[in-house]
Amino acid sequence: MAPRKMKAVEQPISARKGAGSRVPGRSRPLTRIQKEKQDIILEAALEVFSVHGFRGATIDQIAEVAGMSKPNLLYYFPKKEEIHRRLISTLLDTWLAPLREMNDGGDPFGEIRSYIRRKLEMARDFPRESRLFANEMLRGAEHVSDMIEIDLKNLVDDKAKVLLAWMDQGKLVRTDPYHLIFSIWATTQHYADFDVQVRAVLGPDRNGDNRFDDAARYLEQVFMHGLAPKPRADG
After folding, report:
1. Which of 23, 29, 79, 90 has its CA 20 to 30 A from that of 199?
2. 106 lies in the same domain as 70
3. Based on the structure, what is the number of domains in the chain?
4. Does 85 score more than 80 pLDDT?
5. 66: containing domain
């Protein structure tokens, strides 16, 4: 599982989904240089929020990491909350991308295996983003509750129906599709959110990037075996 850039983050944060075309509270579109400044702020904020959390992070810290003055930063984002919400909303869109790719017309085991792999790739390539998202959930998702209750729920509802259809067709053992999705989230994101613990326990001989390949093989074995329909007894 060689490190690679995920499609959802190939563009600068402010270039995605029309974000960054304007400064909050201002109607005039941003210039190229202003967009670059906004990207620098968001990258610095990701670093600060992922380490200190929302409450522990300050505008001063973000400005220092971004290498700009506090007044300059406040021109683009007047409040810490605006920076945080922008990051979380972009991250949620990225986080949902692998689940969106689950194809109801594909082979169930191939689709689930690919989903596990994509989630592990995200844990490997975007540990700061994963920790930021986990911190937001632990804090009750107060800044993005609407995204969780609408965007996330609607997508999971749709994919739960796909999983149930495969179960009805006898392609997967019958189980709770929601808890199946939760289990995949928990096991894959663990490798980002508890990276220090994982590397410490594995030790120097096994804590390199190969740990994600080892994790992928193990999780595929667990989920594929657990979801395989049991042969019917004759008679």
Report:
1. 90
2. no
3. 2
4. yes
5. 24-78
The CATH number of whichever domain residue 62 belongs to comes to 1.10.10.60
| Non-local CB neighbours of 47 within 8 Å, separated by 6+ positions | 65, 128
For residue 37, being part of any structural domain is answered with yes
124 and 69, same structural domain? no
At CA 93, angle to CA 88 and CA 96, rounded to 5? 120
- From CA 53, how far away is CA 48, in angstroms rounded? 7
Residues 111 and 183 in one domain: yes
Q: Quick one: CA dihedral 134, 117, 101, 16, positive or negative?
A: positive
The answer to whether position 8 is within a domain reads: no
Which whole number is the average pLDDT over 136-157? 85
State the Cα–Cα distance between residues 119 and 117, nearest whole angstrom. Answer: 5
What number of H helices and E strands is found in the chain? 11, 0
Residue 20 falls in which region: left (phi positive, over 0), alpha (psi -120 to 50) or beta: left
Lowest-confidence region among 26-35, 77-86, 203-212 = 26-35
Q: Is residue 170 one of the residues assigned to a domain?
A: yes
Whether 46 and 133 share a structural domain:
no
Q: Check residue 142 and give its pLDDT.
A: 75
Q: What is the mean pLDDT of residues 210-229?
A: 95
What is the rounded CA–CA span in Å between residue 95 and residue 136?
13
Q: What backbone phi and psi angles, to 5 degrees, belong to 29? A: -60, 150
